[in-house]
TrEMBL record:
<dbReference type="InterPro" id="IPR036400">
    <property type="entry name" value="Cyt_B5-like_heme/steroid_sf"/>
</dbReference>
<keyword id="KW-0275">Fatty acid biosynthesis</keyword>
<protein>
    <submittedName>
        <fullName>Acyl-CoA (8-3)-desaturase-like</fullName>
    </submittedName>
</protein>
<keyword id="KW-1133">Transmembrane helix</keyword>
<keyword id="KW-0472">Membrane</keyword>
<keyword id="KW-0443">Lipid metabolism</keyword>
<feature type="transmembrane region" description="Helical">
    <location>
        <begin position="147"/>
        <end position="167"/>
    </location>
</feature>
<feature type="domain" description="Cytochrome b5 heme-binding">
    <location>
        <begin position="32"/>
        <end position="112"/>
    </location>
</feature>
<keyword id="KW-0812">Transmembrane</keyword>
<dbReference type="InterPro" id="IPR005804">
    <property type="entry name" value="FA_desaturase_dom"/>
</dbReference>
<dbReference type="Pfam" id="PF00173">
    <property type="entry name" value="Cyt-b5"/>
</dbReference>
<comment type="pathway">
    <text>Lipid metabolism; polyunsaturated fatty acid biosynthesis.</text>
</comment>
<dbReference type="GO" id="GO:0006633">
    <property type="term" value="P:fatty acid biosynthetic process"/>
</dbReference>
<dbReference type="InterPro" id="IPR012171">
    <property type="entry name" value="Fatty_acid_desaturase"/>
</dbReference>
<feature type="compositionally biased region" description="Basic and acidic residues">
    <location>
        <begin position="1"/>
        <end position="11"/>
    </location>
</feature>
<dbReference type="InterPro" id="IPR001199">
    <property type="entry name" value="Cyt_B5-like_heme/steroid-bd"/>
</dbReference>
<keyword id="KW-0276">Fatty acid metabolism</keyword>
Length: 461
């Protein structure tokens, strides 16, 4: 069969009646154009005109303009420009009816009939089995939230937050209540972080709008961070985990750390040395959380002002004023500075070790446009389940299941885990699961290995 190239016509399709404003829609041709995968690949946002096309279920969409107003962030959708985004699209969107109104106005064509449904470098059998697994997960109700579970999560973090103030108010600021108050404040803040993470993935309520509203309450009002900033960064991480220049979690490379063999050898051959990377496994423990505190504090204001997120900015400022008014009258300004910033440093330490134990020891490279399953499994690993591990990590010890099904409520990860492991066994993919201590130690081992690769390339490359 002859391949119909760009510009040739396919079956007629009526222009959609979206009811949107003229600015939000554009006319759809009475005929859809047919494209080849090569047509798609060249529209990756980097060529002439910087057009961004992607494929979802064989339909071709031009997201060049829409990416700037994409509710999940502008960059996350751009990371799939020139690629098949079918499985990523399904993974991120539970409410398909909500997003269809956006897709209709972006449709420009479809793949030609003799074009395969999968890109040549994708594992067809693996994706077919994963999509069948996805249907099984939906039929089992594993994407439905348990409201009692999340209510108790929310309640326990509110109790911890209140306790951090009440201890100091009732017992004063002698050493023991001061340290107990810091402990309660730190635990409350990290647990708020895990809970807002659930809300950001729309896994607490079935309707996205309720997740977004409560996320603003938790992260903006109770934590002092903008929800839009978190979602902008975190959605990119999930779209392309451990892919340099697409996963913001790798932005510590190369300024502070050298990550992964490929990037470390490349850095060494370029004779670049921002830090003594061969010692990074020693300074990670102190420097990583210490650097994260000012990075968060500065970047949130930069983000909110640059993108004109005035509500986020107002709520951030309100949080800081509220915390000052609550604690300074009880302990004075100097003691409050110690109380607050020591808590933030401890929270940062907790966050760094939990968030990086699943990723730094795994494959780190540039985007190779692998299939959805391979992309997630090569970049993630699990930590053994226990009541403590579940609570301590916000259930991110089930990182594999979380990345394959980002909208799945965390209380269902353990139910999906055997199904995912069976899929991995069938296709010969390693399903890594470790103890919590081993996962922490592997961060340092990985950094040591990366530092040695950098040093070898720096000296002899």
């Amino acid at each position: 069969m002859k391949i119909l190239h760009r510009g040739e016509l396919a079956k007629p399709e009526m222009a959609p009646q979206t009811g949107s404003t003229e600015k939000e829609t554009r006319p759809v041709s009475a005929f859809l154009q047919l494209f080849t995968w090569e047509d798609i690949r060249i529209h990756n946002g980097r060529g002439q005109g910087q057009e961004q096309w992607l494929v979802i279920d064989r339909k071709v969409y031009d997201v060049s303009e829409f990416s700037k107003r994409h509710p999940g962030g502008s960059r996350v959708i751009s990371h799939y420009a020139g690629q098949d985004a079918t499985d990523a699209f399904v993974a991120f969107h539970n409410d398909k009816s909500l997003v269809k109104k956006y897709l209709k106005s972006l449709l420009i064509g479809e793949l030609a009939p003799d074009q395969p449904s999968f890109e040549s470098n994708k594992k067809k059998s693996l994706l077919e089995d994963f999509r069948e697994l996805r249907c099984t997960v939906e039929k089992m109700g594993l994407l439905r939230p348990n409201y009692i579970f999340f209510f108790l999560i929310f309640l326990h973090l509110l109790v911890l937050d209140a306790a951090s103030w009440l201890v100091v108010w009732y017992f004063g600021i002698s050493l023991v209540p001061f340290l107990v108050g810091i402990a309660f404040f730190t635990i409350a803040q990290i647990q708020m972080g895990w809970f807002q993470h659930d809300l950001g993935h729309c896994s607490v309520f079935r309707k996205p709008k309720w997740n977004r509203l409560l996320q603003i309450v938790v992260i903006n009002v109770l934590k002092g961070l903008p929800a839009s900033w978190w979602n902008h960064l975190h959605n990119q991480h999930h779209a392309k985990p451990n892919c340099f220049r697409k996963d913001p979690d790798l932005n510590m490379h190369p300024l502070l750390f050298s990550l992964g063999k490929t990037l470390s050898v490349e850095l060494g051959k370029q004779k670049k040395k921002f830090m003594p990377y061969n010692y990074q496994h020693k300074y990670f423990i102190l420097l990583a959380p210490l650097a994260l505190v000012p990075f968060f504090q500065l970047s949130i204001f930069y983000f909110a002002i640059k993108r004109k997120k005035w509500l986020d900015l107002l709520l951030i400022v309100s949080f800081n004023i509220r915390v000052c008014l609550m604690y300074i009258p009880l302990m004075g300004f100097n003691n409050f500075m110690v109380y607050y910033w020591l808590s933030r440093y401890l929270e940062s330490t907790w966050f760094i070790w939990v968030s990086q134990m699943n990723h730094i020891p795994m494959d780190i490279d540039y985007d190779k446009n692998k299939d959805w399953v391979s992309t997630q499994l090569h970049a993630t690993c699990n930590v053994k389940q226990s009541l403590f591990n579940d609570w301590f990590t916000g259930h991110l010890n089930f990182q594999i299941e979380h990345h394959l099904f980002p909208t799945m409520p965390r209380h269902n990860y353990w139910k999906a885990a055997p199904l995912v492991k069976a899929l991995c066994d069938k296709h010969g993919i390693e399903y890594k699961s470790k103890t919590l201590l081993t996962a922490f130690v592997d961060i340092l081992h990985s950094l040591k290995d990366s530092g040695e690769h950098w040093l070898e390339a720096y000296l002899h490359g």
